[in-house]
Amino acid sequence: MNSVDFVYVWWNMFCYKCNIGYINDLADLFPDKVTIKLYADDVKLYSNIINNAFNATYDLQDQLEELSKWATVWQLPISYSKCCVLTVGRASLSLQQQSFVIGAHAIQSVSSTVDLGVTVNSNLKFSLHINKTCSKANKRANLILRCFESKSLESLVSAFKVYVRPILEYCSVVWNPCILKDINNLESVQRRFTKRLPGMKKFSYHQRLAILKLESLELRRLSADLLFAYKLVFGIIDLKLSDFFIADFHRASRRHQYQLYLPSCKSSIRFNSYSYRVLSTWNDLSPNETDFSSLTRFKLSLTPKQLLRHCKVYFK
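Structure (tokenized):
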């Protein structure tokens, strides 16, 4: 993002005894230059600022003033303490010093914030989110080992799958790490848990996974990336394939017929984003081993034999 910066404004709106229907018309306030996203009583507003154009920042501030007027008219108070501004990209000093206000309240500028459970920072690196996730997951895993009276492997592993693994995999398509330190940090939660299981200490991590019929977390995240790509290609989710990839299914190829393409990029942030990250793995799927006929069959055909060569770490 050499010339493009994104300014995000997060805020929380107190809507006592009301549902999302009370704020649906909020989206009608904003022009195309400013984008708004709603989820329950959380609102996210963002603007694309090219070459630090001052008009774009003024547009954003104008819309914040419209928001303040709307909230006053409908008597829906804004939680100003939860509002923040996050600048994503290589913002210049002038953009970093730009202040935004809602009514008479200045919005705090932050370097990171939590958006729907994912910690996002200004350089779009997710090490902070991964550290928080691992800390929470380790505490949950320790509770299982301390509090479960049953010491059967089946019960403890089932508890790990239900109570710990979802923490480690929530929204992984967004933040799936490329840095070895982060990959190992995530894997250490499962590595430590399985080692503390009765009779497992003498085995290596790779052996424990085989005995307990578990997969490495990195392998599971890779599968999640591919399943999301499948849903995009076959229109299972309400997102445009063209927003993620260039698809030309009629182009001649020796590999499977659903090849995806992207232009080359120099930015490390973009190169490690979902679209570029999953591209080579998706295109490299074997047409003889992969079943594209349904999502369930596709998932079952994603065997470790196919995917392990695309993992950055082979856990032993």
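Residues 230-310 form one domain. Residues 1-5, 13-20 have pLDDT under 50 and may be disordered.
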